[in-house]
Amino acid sequence: MAKILVTGGTGYIGSHTVVELQKVGFEVVIVDNLSNSNIEVLNGIEKITGIRPAFENIDCTDYMALDRMFEKYPGIEAIIHFAASKAVGESVEKPLLYYRNNLTSLINLLQLMPIHKVKHFVFSSSCTVYGQPDELPVTENAPIKPALSPYGNTKQICEEIIQDTSHSNPFYRAIILRYFNPIGAHPSAEIGELPNGVPNNLLPYVTQTAAGLRKELKVFGNDYNTPDGTCIRDYINVVDLAKAHVIAVQRLLDEKGEKAVEIFNLGTGTGLSVLDIVNTFERVNGVKVPHSFAPRREGDIEKVWADPTRANTVLGWKAQETVEDTLKSAWTWECRLAKLREEKAANAEE
Ligand code: UDP
After folding, report:
1. What is the pTM of this model?
2. Any residues with Cβ below 6 Å from ligand 1, and which?
3. C-alpha torsion angle, residues 278, 279, 281, 283 (rounded to 10)
4. How far does residue 271's CA lie from ligand 1's centre (Å)?
């Protein structure tokens, strides 16, 4: 089966996607600079699939290194491009880092594609491009709103770069996937999210609070115009999300695309509030998540959830996992991390 380059393949969504690709027989080459992931993720992938993917420690802003990688692995047919900086707050403090990483990486790959005869490209985008949509659920046709952070802006600009590049040269075939809020972990608990330092995202903060690593969760804002006053998001299981990438790559390889660049929302279609998540997490896992209300977080959208009809009908993909099972998988993964930490501490004492 086809050889696929996965940039950012040791990251959170990347690693789950590598597993799903290998499970159906794709050959995977991972490129990652390990800036926000750990090489041990390869062990987890190997444990689940029985296959250790090829790995190259390369920064995608390094054009020459990428060029050499394509020479070393001839016959790559498609790229799934996850590698990017993704922390909203950090992007406000270090905009140039974000523009350099996220734009240069994309440009390098797009430039190298025709040289190495790689036609197919899947891009990780985000529902952040919609800002606060005027209509909910939000469809792919909703207008793009001015970005609220440099991170969000990089996703918008990257989408435009892909559109312009494809327009200039019919060689390219691309699928842009707009993720809503990915959560959970692989049911084996061999891979999951590995946040660096204090988590920014809700779910790792919830699991770390339940595990006692954080004193309490601050719920940012309880005076929004929503039923319980907290923000609403569309939380999508990471394995479901990963499976959508396999379908997208296959669609490109089969040349089934109706347009040179297709765009799909990847969400469940259901909006849940921060309190829904906290309460459901506590109920299904039988643990407490101490929490209190705090002021609104700057830049937060009040409510957004997907209309996933296009992905459902055109890709034949649909989110399968319940939020209950997804929240259980997140907790199982956090418990696994706690066990690994204990083992490391014990080994260090010996
Ligand atoms: N959130 C929260 N406390 C936290 C982290 C997040 O209340 O410590 C809220 C945040 O305000 C938003 C939701 O959880 O309403 C999802 O935030 P996250 O950062 O996970 O994703 P976003 O939708 O902002 O990309």
Report:
1. 0.98
2. 181, 200-202, 205, 217-220, 231, 233, 274, 297, 300
3. 160
4. 13
